[in-house]
Amino acid sequence: MNQAELDKLVEAPNSWHMVRALAGIGLMCALLIVTTYELTFETIKQNKAEVLERAIFKVVPGAQSKTTFIVKDGQVEKLQGESNSGLKYYAGYDDSGKLIGVALEAAGQGFQDIVRVLYGFSPDKQAIVGMEVLESKETPGLGDKIEKDETFLKNFEALDVSLNESGDNLKNEIIFVKNGTKANPWELDGITGATISSKAIAAILQASASQNMPFLNQNIENFKQQ
Q1: 134 has which bridge partners?
Q2: Distance, CA of 67 to CA of 102 (rounded, Å)
Q3: At CB < 8 A and 24+ separation, what contacts does 71-78 make?
Q4: Under a CB-based contact definition with an 8 Å cutoff, are residues 69 and 222 in contact?
Q5: Per-residue pLDDT for 21 more than 80?
Q6: What is the DSSP letter of 13?
Q7: Single pTM value for the model
Q8: Are 198 and 152 in contact (CB under 8 A)?
Q9: Where are the domains of the chain?
């Protein structure tokens, strides 16, 4: 076999064939991703709705029923159907139909990523009476203690969010303190080993409560209409 014949045997593959093969693989992968998304979208949506439903009744202790409200043109209205825009307020009622609390979502930067929480506000106690983490990517074994540390979660049995005399802001800011040093009802006792994550929860609640508590108190009569 001469050199020319050897060169022909080891000739580089046609680049067009390589490009075509890669394009075909890419198209197939894209199709699989889209198909998987379409097939699982409704299931994921339903699962999130169920998680939220359970969380609402958990952060508003004693609630037996709920009504969802939205704000439209500055006015509180009952949500008719579904809406993916705007902040929703979930009013919780006891067996007699009495308003006992309002749950709302809040979010902010944690150690790893955005942390989403749901918390419950009691108008009678002027306090946050429950908090549930809805979404978090905090470090397993450390940052994720904000979801399950019993001592930390006790902060939200009655976290003071009462208003100042003018009613336009909190009387006292929600602040993080080192574990075991909480002395006031508006302080959030942190978690040893998960300082950044527990500080993040304090910041998230402070930002949300300072904005929403004046509005909730001003419009509390609207939420009483189940």
Answers
A1: none
A2: 9
A3: 71/215, 76/219, 76/222, 76/223, 78/225
A4: yes
A5: no
A6: P
A7: 0.79
A8: yes
A9: 60-223
